[in-house]
Amino acid sequence: MRIVVMGAGISGHTAATLLKRYLGKKHEVIVISPNTHWNWIPSNIWVGVGAMVPKDVTFALKPIYHKSKIQFIQAKVTNLYPEGDKTSEQAFVEYESTAPETKGQINRIGYDYCINATGPKLNFSATPGLGPEEGNTVSVCTYLHAEEANEKLQILIQRMKKGELLNFVFGTGHGMCTCQGAAFEYLFNVDHELRKAGVRDKAKILWISNEYELGDFGMGGMHLEQGGYVTSNKIFAESLFAERGIQWKTRAHVSKIEKNKIFYTTLEGEDGFVRYDFSMLIPPFSGVGLKAFRKNGEEFTSTLFAANGMMKVDANYESKNYENWDSTDWPSTYQSPFYSNLFGIGIAFAPPHPISKVMKNGDGIQISPTPPRTGMPSAIMGKVVAQNITHQIKSKTKELKHKASMAEMGAACIASAGNGIFSGTAVSMTVYPIVPDFKKYPKWGRSLTYTTGEIGLAGHWIKMLLHYMFMYKAKCKPGWWLIPE
């Protein structure tokens, strides 16, 4: 059997390495990715403030795959032929090489199973002026973006040391962004570095976000039980922002960005702008642009993929009002409803609906977060799909015995609020389940026993430990499979 994995991020790499471990030499595992290096993306925020450099958060994929007997193709998959075509009965993918020696060449490879783990397209173009390449803002979404962000940050720190007063803006660059957590982490790491440099009094920092309230993070917020009292993470987040002297504006859609101005509109219909000297705004995500074709050559991309370019899986995509959303809408096996040998994991799969309630302003602009599914959930999806494919191959059945619904899955997150062995802090959070289940937990939607949040130095130590642990795991070093996702 041949399993083709499209993408080598957290979900794809997890699936590929576990498949090879489970299946051994008798079956082929092939990874196709345009990227030569694996990146532990959660630590890019530290690259963005100079606490780490790119080599600390990356490694070359090819040597790891060679050692693991996984074939690696440096290329971008462009087309999917799940039925084959007129010249081939076997399903295959078509890809364009990104390797220097064969750049631009088009090839195809057949598969028995295919896993779409392509991750997101960073859709900076959705907001005019957004992003580091053609826009006016910096990014920490890739390690190279983060390195550039730090270079610009250091220049501004020197300007502040000379007495300049500067404006910093962090948050989301569009009304439908996800990954607020990454912007949150970067904001507090920059705040920490400015304090270390003795220039925090020269900086005005603003958080601008599409969240309805602070601390939503695309999960509809959450509630915590502390000291016998139940409080929302809105209170938790607001107290942290106030403590650090950071202003915030939520319910905002960034509409365009000029060289020193960020223009926005809000749910309430307010239009305005803020001035900035340094800004890191997360872009919206979309699918990478895969196209799908039937055997006769007819394109049917819109059947296999949602409008945002992400792949449909075993979810309920029926359009529903918020009041009718249900935990059972969420997928559990990530298998395509159209082809049993095709799976979509990580950010590549299309969620059935957001977790936070969809909100629109009077002009019909959606200003509410789309669902997060990075990090721990992505890795768990990769593992479950690897387990199911392995079970099918070994048992010669179509049974999908392993499940991983985000509505039945817990997640742990450590959000850095500053790097330092003795001065660092981080917010340690657990949430269960990720997608609220108001039938099981009528009052809060989640278990208060397993949904927790604290901030402190210990959290920073844990985040640093996780960095080295997951880099070790991803490099497939001895006993790597014993480290949980």
From TrEMBL:
Residue ranges annotated for the FAD/NAD(P)-binding domain, each copy included: 1-149
Q: SUPFAM superfamilies per the record?
A: FAD/NAD(P)-binding domain
Q: Which Gene3D superfamilies match?
A: 3.50.50.100
The coiled-coil segments of this chain are none
Q: Which residues form the signal peptide?
A: none
Report which superkingdom the organism of origin falls in. Answer: Bacteria
This protein is called: NAD(P)/FAD-dependent oxidoreductase
Species in which this protein is naturally found: Leptospira montravelensis
